[in-house]
Amino acid sequence: MSEFSQVTVVREANIFFDGGVTSRTLIFPDGRKKTLGIMQPGEYEFTTHSAELMEILAGDLDVQLPGADDWQTFAAGESFEVAAHARFGLRVRAVTDYCCSFL
């Protein structure tokens, strides 16, 4: 899906890691939430509150999923899921555009 219609956009940005990762929250009429964001090159670690589906729209990054020793590479058109209350690592190699759906 290349566009979302009939959504509410939260005006205030989500800013993490001194601006290395930023996003905007979309709220759908049925209460579902997604964020659309940009990650600058760097290394980041996140903890989820709810399960997430991360869709990579553009860019290139390595992800260390919860409980994994190895890193997996994801690029445009690929996605990965992270369980609720889990920690995961990111090594962003190129500016990365993403869509995060809260499951």
From TrEMBL:
Q: Does the keyword Transferase apply?
A: yes
Keyword line: Glycosyltransferase, Transferase
List, in alphabetical order, the Gene Ontology terms for molecular function in this entry: guanosine phosphorylase activity; purine-nucleoside phosphorylase activity; thymidine phosphorylase activity; uridine phosphorylase activity
Protein's organism: Candidatus Thiodictyon syntrophicum
InterPro entries the UniProt entry points to: Ppnp (IPR009664), RmlC-like_jellyroll (IPR014710), RmlC_Cupin_sf (IPR011051)
Q: What is this protein called?
A: Pyrimidine/purine nucleoside phosphorylase
Task: Quote the function comment for this protein.
Answer: Catalyzes the phosphorolysis of diverse nucleosides, yielding D-ribose 1-phosphate and the respective free bases. Can use uridine, adenosine, guanosine, cytidine, thymidine, inosine and xanthosine as substrates. Also catalyzes the reverse reactions.
Catalyses:
guanosine + phosphate = alpha-D-ribose 1-phosphate + guanine; thymidine + phosphate = 2-deoxy-alpha-D-ribose 1-phosphate + thymine; inosine + phosphate = alpha-D-ribose 1-phosphate + hypoxanthine; cytidine + phosphate = cytosine + alpha-D-ribose 1-phosphate
Stated family? Belongs to the nucleoside phosphorylase PpnP family.
Q: Which Pfam families match?
A: Ppnp (PF06865)
* Enzyme class, spelled out: transferase
Gene designation per UniProt: ppnP
EC number assigned by the record: 2.4.2.1, 2.4.2.2
Query: Would you tell me the Gene Ontology cellular component terms?
Result: cytosol
